[in-house]
Design brief:
With 503 residues, the chain is mainly alpha-helical. It is 54% helix and 7% strand. Helix 4 packs antiparallel against helix 5, helix 4 crosses helix 9 and helix 9 runs parallel beside helix 16. Pfam families: Lyase_aromatic (PF00221).
């Protein structure tokens, strides 16, 4: 399969499909023409010795320093080397791969002045899965993700490290093995590669894909819990949610009714109790609100995925061409969105932990054994799994602090307000991983709880899920190392986020 890029129409669904199917990329003819036109303007600037930021001048505070014409290309190489000062653990291979796709898509808009050779090198790296090793820390989120993208650029010129065929190796070594020349940066190209928000956006896209999947997965997991506690279905009736007006809430209620259809374990209002606790009764309201967050985040990420966000920007209006130093590299819109994503993810975990606590608490679990222990007292059962979930939820509350409210000036106060959006993206993904483990714990406990009720009375759809999950995690007959179960279910949930059945 092929993902065609043109700078304007890339979607998150495209990225999810690309990763799942291990697709290739190609570019449209129109996009290639846009690249050539913008490069012609850069060449004109060079030939006419015009004063243009980042092409014939230095960077940041050095923007008033003119560069000799025979040093324009060296200026770009120096930029990449000096800015490649990221630290910490590297981004995942998926994030780094998406980063290259997003950077390529931006260059194809024709406002960056890149050469065809740069475009070809990015396509080659993507399609051969030569993935730059990019440290996660060190970006302020304006002037874009300078440090992370500099590490991406280093790989293209044969000076960085890459992942290739499961190993971390020197980029120049891989290129030599493939008989491929390192990229020779031309005027403007170093800047075109590193001025942008692709690190925060790429990590944000991965976080969104997995967070949205968690939203859907939380519904069938909650449906198992609902049946284990003989929950009331009346609260999910369509009329209740339509008078609230929120479409996401209406949709969650509809899906919950579908998951629970024909169950013999659910109850009606007044049969066992008049109303359920909020963690069951308000699933459409709580989960629906998280989907509202996800929808907002998706829109902002897709805007940015198809944006020209470097500096300076080159414009060809037919009868007029011009170059403008602006600030589209500033990550504030993305930073806000990714901080918002953290709230939606956090609440999925919060309510999941409260549900699973009801399953193990003998005062709340409708007569099930304390902690679902096969031998209460001698065996602890699910007791400490609830501790682990509580710990993860608490950690998420700390990570949920918005990174975007902070700013520290840089470049001698030339860059005096920054977004910290990449911190938001990194913390957001940590929260996704934590939330996924909380839901994995609820799943394990709910599977056990429905066995005490009667698995054969489950709704047909949740019975299918029960059978599927029992292939991954076995019945708890005695205490064991539950961390292995948690990680196995968590990995299943992550893998499902990228499958064709994810949504």
């Amino acid at each position: 399969m092929v993902l065609q890029l043109d700078g304007n129409q890339l979607t998150i669904q495209d990225i999810r499909h690309f990763l799942y199917n291990e697709d290739q990329v190609e570019i449209s003819d129109e996009a290639l023409q846009n690249v050539k036109q913008s490069r012609a303007i850069v060449e004109r600037i060079i030939n006419h010795k015009e004063t243009v930021y980042g092409i014939t001048t230095g960077f940041g505070l050095f923007s008033d320093v003119l560069i000799d014409q025979d040093q324009y290309n060296q200026l770009q190489v120096n930029l990449i080397r000096s800015h490649a000062c990221g630290v910490g653990k590297p981004f995942s291979e998926e994030v780094a791969l998406v980063m290259m796709i997003l950077r390529l898509n931006t260059l194809l808009k024709g406002h960056s002045g890149a050469t065809v050779e740069l475009i070809d090198q990015l396509i080659y790296f993507i399609n051969h899965r030569i993935i730059p090793v990019i440290p996660q820390q060190g970006s302020l989120g304006a002037s874009g993700d300078l440090a992370p993208l500099a590490h991406l650029a280093l790989a293209l010129i044969g000076e960085g490290h890459v992942y290739y065929k499961g190993e971390e190796v020197d980029s120049r070594y891989v290129l030599k093995q493939l008989d491929r020349e390192p990229l020779q940066l031309q005027a403007k190209e170093g800047l075109a590669l590193i001025n942008g928000t692709q690190a925060m956006t790429a990590q944000g896209v991965i976080s969104y894909i997995e967070a949205e999947a968690l939203g859907y997965q939380a519904e069938w997991i909650a449906s198992l819990t609902h049946q284990a506690l003989n929950g009331i279905t009346d609260a999910y009736r369509d009329q209740v949610h339509r008078v609230r007006n929120f479409q996401e809430q209406i949709d969650v209620a509809a899906r919950m009714r579908d998951w629970l259809a024909d169950s013999q374990l659910t109850t009606r209002q007044g049969e066992v109790r008049v109303q359920d606790a909020y963690t069951l009764r308000c699933i459409p309201q709580i989960h629906g609100a998280s989907f509202q967050v996800f929808n907002y985040v998706k829109e902002k990420l897709e805007f940015e995925m198809n944006a020209a966000n470097d500096n300076p920007l080159i414009f060809d209006e037919g009868d007029e061409t011009f170059v403008i130093s602006g600030g589209n590299f500033h990550g504030q819109p993305v930073a806000f969105a990714l901080d918002f994503l953290k709230l939606g993810v956090s609440e999925l975990a919060n309510v999941s932990e409260r549900r699973l606590e009801r399953l193990v608490n003998p005062q709340l679990n409708n007569g099930l054994p304390a902690f679902l222990s096969p031998e209460p007292g001698l065996q602890s059962g699910a007791m400490i799994m609830q501790y682990a979930a509580a710990s993860l939820v608490s950690e998420n509350k700390t990570l949920a602090h918005p990174a975007s409210v902070d700013s520290i000036p840089s470049s001698a106060n030339q860059e005096d307000h920054v977004s910290m959006g990449t911190i938001a993206s990194r913390h957001g993904y940590q929260m996704v991983e934590n939330a996924r483990r909380v839901l994995a714990i609820e799943c394990i406990i709910a599977l056990q709880a429905v066995e005490y009720q009667d698995v054969d009375k489950l709704s047909p759809k949740t019975h299918e899920k029960y059978d599927e999950m029992r292939q991954i995690v076995s019945t708890i007959k005695e205490d064991r190392q539950f961390h292995k179960d948690i990680e196995a279910v968590s990995q299943y949930l992550r893998d499902q986020a990228y499958s064709d059945s994810a949504v």
